[in-house]
UniProtKB/TrEMBL annotation:
It holds the Pfam family ABC_membrane. The lineage of its organism: Eukaryota, Viridiplantae, Chlorophyta, core chlorophytes, Chlorophyceae. This is ABC transporter, multidrug resistance associated protein. It comes from the Eukaryota. InterPro entries: AAA+_ATPase, ABC1_TM_dom, ABC1_TM_sf, ABC_transporter-like_ATP-bd, ABC_transporter-like_CS, ABC_transporter_C-like, ABCC_6TM_D1, ABCC_6TM_D2. SMART domains: AAA (SM00382). Residues 1257-1269 have a biased composition (Low complexity).
Amino acid sequence: MKVLIKTYGAELFKAGIYKLLWSVFLLLGAYFFTRSILLCIRTLEGKDQSPFDTEWKGWALTACFFVNAWLLGLMMQRMSYGCLGVGIRARAALTTAVARKCYGMAHLTKDTAAEAVSFVANDINKIFQGMQEIHFLWGAPIEAVAIMVLLASLVGKYCLPGVGILCLVVPAQYYFGYRIIKNKVANFPNTNARYSIIQELLPAMKLVKYYGWERFFEGEISDARSREMRLLIRNAIIKTINVTMVFGVPPVVTFAVLVPYELTNENPSGGVFITPQTAFTMLSLFNVLRFPLMLLPKALRCVSEAIQASETIETFLAEPAAPKHDTEGAPGVSFSKATFKHVLGDSPFRLNVPEFSVRPGELVAVVGRVGAGKSSLLQAIMGNMSLESGSAHAAGRMAYVPQTAWCQNLALRDNIIFGEEVDEALYDDVIDACALGLDLQILPQGDQTKAGLRGINLSGGQRQRLNLARCAYFGGDLVLLDNALSAVDHHTAQHIFDRCIKGLFRNKATVLITHQVEFLPRCDKVAIMDEGNCVYFGPWNEGAQKLLSRYLPASHLLAAAGNAEQPRDEKKKPAKAATTTNQDKAKKAAAAHSPSLTLGAAIWEYAWEARWTIFVLSLFFFLSAQTSRQIADYFIRWWTNDFYKKYNPACEGRLYGVLALGGFLTLMLFRGTFLYTWAIGAANRLQVKSVHRILYAPLGFFLTTPVGDLLVSFTKDQDILDEALPDALYYSGIYALILCATTITVSIVIPAFGALAGGLFLVSGLMLSLYLPAATHLKKLRMGTAGDLVTLIAESLDGLTVIQAYNKQQYFTHVTEQRVDDAHRALFGSECLNLWLAFFCDFYGACMVLAVASFGIGQWRVLGSSNVGLAFSQSIQMLVFYTGSIRLVAECIGLFGSGENLAWIANHTPQEGGRLACPALAGDDDEGKPAKSTVGKALPPPAESIEVEIARSKGKHGPPMGWPRTGDVKFDGVVMKYAPHLPPALRGVSFTIRSGEKVGVVGRTGSGKSTLLLALYRMFRLEAGSIKVDGIDISGLSLQQLRRGLSIIPQEPVVFSGSVRSNLDPFDEYGGDAELWSALRDCGLDSTVKMAGGLDARLDGTGGNAWSLGQQQLMCLARAHLKKVPVLCCDEATAALDPATEANVLEIIERIFADRTILTIAHRLDSVIRSDQVIVMDAGQVSEIGVPTALLSKPGGAFSALVDRTGPAGAAALRMMAAEFATERAAAMQMAMRPRPSLDAARRVSLERLSLDRAPHGAAPRAPGAPTASVTLGAPRH
């Protein structure tokens, strides 16, 4: 904060001078010119004496008043422009500083990264807003004090009641601002809880639908929303009281001052004592005081948030920076007796490296079990671990491929080039060496295809090869590859190893972490890691083979062969003519189901959701309140003019009190109450309906609608509808009615002014017609560029290790500066457009004041001082409220843009047929009609149970009680499309699974494996065919009953934030705690849960305290175990796990699900080799189906080909496992189906027997379980 003040304080002070001049001109117009012109008219009437005793002096005052009014607007614009310039420079500097700090931080945790993104997205903008509002913080009290002094000069001691009221009102503004801030801070946990649930829920919607947990999450969001609404309503009450107090100041102070002043003084000539210049000058002063008092709470909130944000950012910028990597020394790595530790936390882990080195031209492989310290070794090389003892040296330009591939949301070409100079020849060599040529042919836009957020548009293998291509193109001296071949098939791995690692990297110092031991003989040296220790470093020889077999379990060997994407057949690009029809259909479908409404439709639907009855009542109280205020002001004109010549000060004082105090204040309370009830009610109904419709939207909707857009709708857009839009509607209604009432009142008093008033509204419409299109365009540009900036920071922090390894901090800082400039160009244009509007509006306001003054001086004989005084007290408000009215109306229209997406979600999001009928993609039905709208309709009441829901459905017949019982599954001619304009994903699929059978499904990427589960769970409509479970056609079932009648273990396990109990049994349907503990014990999670604190322990789904991947998968196992249904689906349940955890999970599945029908989707062939049947999918069709041994006996069979592609060693082991299982199965049938042995044990025995078969003649036989398997598979070639 001190640096900001020192850097920008002088410029803010200059802007403050303009604000002070604005206050001077405001008071000068409201006090001096208003009083002087009225005094001039009174003098001309012969009712008073003053220096302004001629008409030309009145015209001179009129001209000066116009100049004063014009300068008044000019000073405000100069202040705003000065604060804008300072704010943008400060914002740019802080954003760049935060980005530079992020890119150079030594250690960035997940929580710190989230804070950094929040700084750029929110906190720095709060500092910008604080700089825009800071001068209103001190301006209001100064103006209030000045008005008190001027009031004393008008009425002397009678100003004391008014001073007392102001002394209560001004501090009350600070107090109300404080209370609003406090309630907002108190509401942050509730808002964040709702945000967190939605943010966690949307990416996991497929899993939620698999489990049938929509109703549970709807309740969780509803609970958070209820807590949030209580504080929103409390703030709305405070705002209503605050506005009533501010706008009640003029009539209340006028009553408190004028009535005693009139009652205790007598006019020597009889009649009214108070003069028009006194009454209307005082009224003008208090009318203009409303504007700064209205802005005071907002200024207090913005400045306090800016101070808090600056302190938070200051703490962040003080974090230690990363050590600089030596890029000038001799390339290579040399460790000697080195011990490293992690810098963050108090982890006891130590990395011990007695000896390790790599020089240019050498390839060093690092092997070991999962968690042995292999990746830590690379982190130590990159300088991300602290050296405790020994010596460590690493130098040279570094290139790094991380274990988890990192991509930017840029074109593939830009991801590969990574800020380097373009070399087309090198680029082509890299594409070939990294086996990306076929992928670029298949992708629709070649190397210009966007990778998507976190590479979502690419497969895992494509992402990893893209990272490898970046590394190869960079041309570093020291190449670090962290398991860079794990996600590619055997043949692709051989291609990359030959062309890239042994080709492009042949002169580099290369470190390769790998599980694929077949490459070890071709490496210069091998490092074997175990439990953080480098137990061997040297050439690959027989001693290294024996040592490795002791540390690397047998399950790792098949993992190396099978943990990869299946190869795809080479395909040619389809001809454009063949795809034109589908593309046209796709465009038409996208247009029909665009997740947004037009602005007019959004406003209309918002009004329907808000309820027209409340709107009419709110409008009535708005009009009534403003009418009572105008009558009260008009009454002063009667009073000062003694219009009815029946002077009775006590009666007139009481009458004014009834109008000003009783009527106006009461009606203002009602207008605020009904307005906020209307607006907040609409926002809440839209939110509740949006959540409901999203939860019950078909899965296809999420495939076509970006999750990021939905998150923006549920967070930023909802926040605008909750607070910003109600406030804008409230103030725009007040300001617009003040403007209209002022125009009408002045037109009544001065009839000739009516013509100018018509011109005023005409000009206002013209200004809006010019302003709104430009403002809408600039707002979208501003939001887009700001979003690009935040996205860049977020994705850069995800890949910070890569950025630092490539020493690209300066490059990314430069890119960030460019994004900052783009964002600020849009911001500057948007704000300057507002200043342009304010300039002309202020000028027109000054012209209106000039017109009133001119009519007053020119027609003083006809109008009289009382009429002119009333006109002046009204028209002076135009200087303050005219610009505000136009801008607030424009702001409301702009804020309604946030309702475009949310109203569409609430009323037009397609539904899964009322949760009973088959869904289609994005609401498409056979005729392509959009989803049915629910504008203005309430949500249907939730069903008490699944049975009640089925009973309410028409034309549906539920299954027998206890369905399903046996677990028979039959697919009969199933044809399914993901969308009407897409080709079928399943083409006539037919097969039968008998009760208790274990069936594996394999096939290449995109062959339709996982699509079988989507069809079984009715995530998409079937075009033809049927699916039956226990003989019941699932198309006649409730989606809830169907999905809760099946169990699944997903590929990507999810543990939701909440308790252990809510993650296992969200509906409390499995009895007491004993059942839950039994399931946890069977799945090996009981000790973990006890350490976490029991069933009610809080789990973090996404943060730093989240469970490991293996623990999350065990939680999914426990969920499936609890359901006690006979059908279990495993959707690549172990694909994301390391081999050791995978073996544990598969052993648990075999143990506790032995009696269930299991459908396993897998690309790991060893996971399905012991199945009763194997289904081979190809292009959406069943290519083969049968017993594994029978399929393997077909020389040219599809399954046999898949097995052979795992490599000679892996294929031999898989065939042996299949043969052994066939033998065991036959024996088991004779022995009444004894339990199957452990899968990991079967793997180990098969590999050991394979090793014995390949052992040299005369060698001593090894006992089963002896550690020999890994030696033979990686034997050196002679």
